Amino acid sequence: MFSLVLPTGGELWPEVEALAPSLNEIGINMVWLPPAYKGASGGYPSAMIPTISLTSASLIKGSVATKYGDKAQLLAAINALKEHNIAVLLDVVVNHKMGADEKEALRVQRVDEQDRTQIDEEIIECEAWTRYTFPVRAGQYSQFVWDYKCFSGIDHIENPTEDGVFKIVNDYTGEGWNEQVDDELGNFDYLMGANIDFRNHAVTEEIKYWARWVMEQTGCDGFRLDAVKHIPARFYKAWIEHVQEVAPQPLFIVAEYWSHEVEKLQQYIDWSRAKRCCLMPHCR
């Protein structure tokens, strides 16, 4: 477990490494680490940029290291935990992206923010920050380029400049939002930022690749999945089955689903039932 308000400065990973023996002594056998990648501002704000870089040797979003430290420090912390029989869960945020590298010309439709199923028929020609090229990384780790076709919605457009919820006109426009998500606000597929469209096969394959890569790099024992109420259950069913199949040992996987309605939690569990999976949504 960790706090969103941990200080910046790259001290967390060394602190975790130093605490490993005492955590073992008091009976801790598993820890959930914060994201090993960066938000748009470099830390852990309200939305993340899930990237393949993890913390590469290049200057990305203002720094090489993340808010919590660099890659070497992260791996040292994980190794220390494992040496003291403490399993490590990594945080997975794949609902949306922020902090794009380039703007793109695209078409959008306004959406009623209180009822996301109400999509205006008017098509607006505009620009938005939806292209992620990772220019400093220059193809290291992954050559995948994210563009507007990878997303279903956005909350800010330019030329004309306007804030709100906008449905991106892409290959899946006639299908509306993704299904198998929470029905709050009519359909809670869209949360914030550039909303990832899980109907795009190239996107889902890239996220599977990211999972394989991060497991190889870190040797983690499982994942905590962020904001699953906004992500179609069918995606996580396939993703969980994939990571369990390629992992060297069974993974422990827990999901965050903020709802007080037990029926919604049970429905998502039923939708996303996967082999060799422990999916345990959170209640509030």
TrEMBL record:
What keywords would UniProt list here?
Answer: Glycosidase, Hydrolase
Give GO MF terms, alphabetically: alpha-amylase activity
Q: What is its EC number?
A: 3.2.1.1
Q: Does the keyword Cell membrane apply?
A: no
What superkingdom does the record give? Bacteria
**Catalytic class of the enzyme:** hydrolase
- Ranges for domain Glycosyl hydrolase family 13 catalytic come to 4-284
- Gene Ontology annotations of biological process type: carbohydrate metabolic process
One matching Pfam family, short form? Alpha-amylase
Q: What is this protein called?
A: Alpha-amylase
Task: Tell me the organism.
Answer: Klebsiella pneumoniae
